[in-house]
Amino acid sequence: MTDLHPEIAAVTERVIARSRDTRRAYLDLIEREREAGVHRPMLACGNLAHGFAASGEDKPAIIAGRAMNIGIVTAYNDMLSAHQPYGRYPDQIKVFAREVGATAQVAGGTPAMCDGVTQGQRGMELSLFSRDTIALSTAVGLSHGMFEGALLLGICDKIVPGLMIGALRFGHLPMILVPAGPMPSGLANKEKQRIRQLYAEGKVGRAELLESESASYHGAGTCTFYGTANSNQMMMDVMGLHMPGASFINPGTKLRQAVTRAAVHRLTQIGWSGNDYRPIGHCVDEKAIVNAIVGLLATGGSTNHAIHLPAIARAAGIVVDWEDFDRLSAAVPLIARVYPNGAGDVNHFHAAGGMSYVIASLIDAGMLHDDILTVSGSRLRDHARDPKLSGEDLVFEDAVAQSLDDTMLRHPAAPFQPDGGMRLVKGNLGRATFKTSAVAPERRTIQAPARVFSDQDDVIAAFKAGELEKDVVVVVRFQGPRANGMPELHKLTPPLGVLQDRGFKIALVTDGRMSGASGKVPAAIHLSPEGVGGGPIGRIRDGDVIRLSAEEGVLEALVDPAEWDSREDAVPPPSGLGTGRELFAFMRHGADGAEQGASTMLAAAGL
Fold first, then answer.
1. For residues 451 and 466, what is the distance between their CA atoms, to the nearest angstrom?
2. Which of 133, 406, 451, 514 makes a 20 to 30 Å CA pair with 77?
């Protein structure tokens, strides 16, 4: 057995020590909830009758109370391609549950917001707080006390983190996350990127751009680039919360249905009435959270999880910060190149060996905690398997011994780069995240004058007017959670990429987010403290020289300290109205910092 890498061991101990009191309080909570919380035997007859009134043929089994009743929390809608396949899942799950004497009911639905639809639009200002809304919706569904276990149906950006946060407050229940898989590959990602940049330059029109986008996003399933949604699936795998190999099987296949069926059957085996009780609150411990960070770094995953993982961890009484990410990044090699960090998409990644190879090779290299409680198997290595159909039977095969495509996936001993590509930068502007995995090494340090904006549309206008044709650090402030809900600024990627391709030294500094598909332009994002409330980004003026270096871990305004201290903070623009943004004002006002998870709900709960 390979010893754990010393830095991973040290960071894990750091997290355990920091979380000792909060984790103990959490474990005490879920123990009390199991013993004395709301569950079926405690419900009055009127309560129970309401709960099974419409259950049809399952009513006698629910009344008898001798078998698990599974709560289904679903993020189904048929506007969002990733979640459209979930429409038929509840009926299938009920059949699969009956096969083993159990029952299932839809406990509740959650929103499933698509950042791809709202990107660059006003609705994106609801995006981050949709995560807290999803968590609250999950809690509402599970609050009825009708269930001894739950299946969580969700995939995309804020949806899995929201489901996890809500589910962990019912941590005494066993739960399994059930993905639906990515759509088949469409237009090559590099070609999509090329068309986007041509459109930004005015060299192709909207019709050509829409044709390209439609060829990329063309059917049911998750988008195939390695953004936040597919990073979610990776994390659930390395935390052992999926059935082995579940993440990247395409929708609508017999194999996908067989793995979902296996999840239902497995859930009934890990309930509290048996001898293999595996509550989600015990599965998600400090080691599992460190595994999620390691997996994120090793595969070049989404920067959005520098916000989501601290929030998920808090819901389980665990405290992580960006120094943990930074220290792990320095130790964990990058072993995957999936678009936007490479040419192939998640289907190509899966064909090259996928998550089973990632898990097996990282365990062998001492990079992952193998000794975690998973939903299936006695250790994480049991998840390093791929589901296959042998006739009508589902079988699990061990991971391939070596990558089947070393342009996509490599062994940790021969990585694409020696570090995980997500670094902490800090200085007199605060603390921010810098994703290096898609940024050329020679571009990871830049020192140039600032051009300051308070709205991403103003950046686009300046680009079109030719005002950014120079070495420049584009500063976009008042984009944090308290300002406008911390929207992603993904639509800035094409114009900034164009400027970089023209030979200019370009960087972005913002208290907002970039997409999980953030790419080749150096960017210090999630800058905290944010501009609203006195963050130093509010003091930057046009022409100030900014130094940003991922290699040095530096983000500084090179301004005389006396002048810097004398400056007044810029005044933020008024909050927007319309598109429902005003309904989320209380979330903006109560949000805490990005490094803590940018959550109103967790802050208000004192977690």
1. 13
2. 514
- The pLDDT value given to residue 325: 97
Rounded to an integer, what distance in angstroms lies between the CA atom of residue 337 and that of residue 54?
49
At 385, give phi and psi (nearest 5°).
Answer: -140, 155
Residue-level pLDDT at 359: 98
Tokens of 386: 């791929």
Ranges of residues in the chain whose predicted pLDDT is under 70: 1, 515-518
| CATH 3.50.30.80 domain residues, the chain | 422-573
Question: Cis (ω within 30 of 0) for the bond into 387?
Answer: no
pLDDT at 587: 92
Detail the DSSP E strand segments found in 337-421.
Answer: 385-390, 393-398
Supply angle C-alpha 504, 415, 405, rounded to 5: 100
Residue showing tokens 């090779």: 361
370 and 363 Cβ atoms separated by less than 8 Å: yes
Q: Is the dihedral of CA 270, 272, 277, 283 positive or negative?
A: positive
Phi and psi at 566, nearest 5°, equal -85, -15
Q: What is the largest CA-CA distance in the chain?
A: 76
pLDDT at 517: 52
- Structure tokens, 375: 């939903």
> Tokens at residue 111, please?
């929103």
Predicted local distance difference test score (pLDDT) of residue 516: 53
What lies within 8 Å, CB to CB, of 389 at 6+ separation is 254, 255, 258, 395
Does the annotation flag 45 for ligand binding?
no
Q: What is the pLDDT of residues 298-344, one digit of tens each?
A: 999 999 999 999 999 999 999 999 999 999 999 999 999 998 888 88
Q: Output the pLDDT for position 515.
A: 67
Read off the tokens for 392. 């009508």
Taken in order 62, 65, 66, 67, the sign of the CA dihedral is positive
Q: Which amino acid is at 512?
A: G
pLDDT in tens, 389-404: 999 999 999 999 999 9
The annotation status of 156 as a binding-site residue, yes or no, is yes
Instruction: Output the pLDDT for position 173.
Output: 97
Predicted local distance difference test score (pLDDT) of residue 192? 75
Number of Cα atoms under 13 Å in the Cβ half of residue 84: 17
Treating both helix axes as pointing N-terminal to C-terminal, what angle do 6-18 and 322-331 enclose, rounded to 10 degrees?
Answer: 170
| 8 A C-beta contact, residue 15 and residue 320 | yes
With left for phi above 0 and alpha for psi between -120 and 50, is residue 12 left, alpha or beta? alpha
Q: Are 520 and 497 in contact (CB under 8 A)?
A: yes
- Write down the architecture of domain 422-573 according to CATH: 3-Layer(bba) Sandwich (3.50)
Q: Which residues pair with 150 in a beta bridge?
A: 71, 175
Run of H or E residues at 526? strand 523-528
Q: Report CA 46 to chain centroid distance, whole Å.
A: 40
pLDDT of residue 25: 98
pTM of full prediction above 0.85:
yes
d(CA 104, CA 68): 8
Note whether 478 and 454 are within 8 A (CB).
yes
Among candidate residues 252, 442, 234, 266, the one with its CA nearest the CA of residue 338 = 234
